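#struct-queue
[09:14] JT: dropping the first one here, sequence first, then the structure tokens:
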Amino acid sequence: MPILEWALWQAGVTAGLLGVWAELRGLRNSPVGLRNKIRTAIELYPCELLFVHRDAEGQGRAIRITEINDTIDELRQSGITIPHVCAVLVRMQEAWLLIDEVAIRTAVGNQYGRVQLQLPRLHEIEALHDPKEVLFELLTTASEFSGRRLRKFSCAKARLRITSLISPDSESYLHSRPLRKSWRRS
């Protein structure tokens, strides 16, 4: 959700947004297939604009966009019409989470840690071969855990926390853009 909010903010949409993640995995009869997932999401989470997220997963961006658009066209034929945006990640979402050292440290519960973190430079992030591995290494390093605490540490849970900690008013994200009050997080 934060990544989509950032994209909207970059496009100049700054007010009137209420984004909701359509969580379908916990449903008793979880939908299978893109068509059923979109249909269920629209039924359970009515919206004015639908973002359809798919990872490229080696298929390529164009193939995934075609898949989404074809599925939406099928749904239109059955009477379901909703504006949509194809959100196709070519690189893993973890690449987006490598921009803010404070968020990484806070996500592991060690905001004032002293160990040096070697975050990739902004212009290098999209070229990383495995951003998930880089992020998990940074999270482990930032935790400063060892022994049993390190074995119990969950990089996956810390990764989820980062998404709520990074915001467009982050210095590394803004690149000196003016801070918009409506985006401040408490």
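[09:21] JT: and here's the second one, same format:
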Amino acid sequence: MPAFLTRLDDFMLLVFGGDIPHEPLQLHQIAMRGIVVYLIGIAIIRVGKSRSIARATAVDVLLGFILGSLLSRGITGHASMSGTAVASAAIVATHYVITRLAVHHDWFGTLLKGHAYLLVENGVPNEEALCHSHLSHKDLEEQMRLKGIKSIDQVEEAWKERSGEVSVIAKKK
């Protein structure tokens, strides 16, 4: 092996404990792995065009859980740095393709994200939709108050959206 590669390998071993550590990591190695894995995670998420947490769907939350698990294993040395980066990139690429398909094909978007349900129409609650959405009348009233509406008869429509949030349209005065 050329001297340059030997020095690079020695440097990587000193700083990161190697790609796959053979000995327990030292604190500085865990810190350096944390920094590098964090930067890799940011780069992968930016390229994957993931939505913001405020607009996260169940699919986005799942991606977050899987990435969190994957990236943590790379930091602690329970997985290789290269394997962590490759697996993370593959999962985000899959997420990108799946969400892209959902944008272009309604049937796939519905399969992936579910349906929106009309919870209230002209001040009348839809009991079946509330039950299907696992929302009680108290939950519905809370959502209305959060949107500045005092009474259900002031609601033209309320929807449980595909994201799980409840949107409320007040009646025009």
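[09:30] RK: nice, looked through the second one.
[09:31] RK: The CA atoms of residues 159 and 165 lie 8 Å apart.
[09:31] JT: good to know. The radius of gyration is 24 Å.
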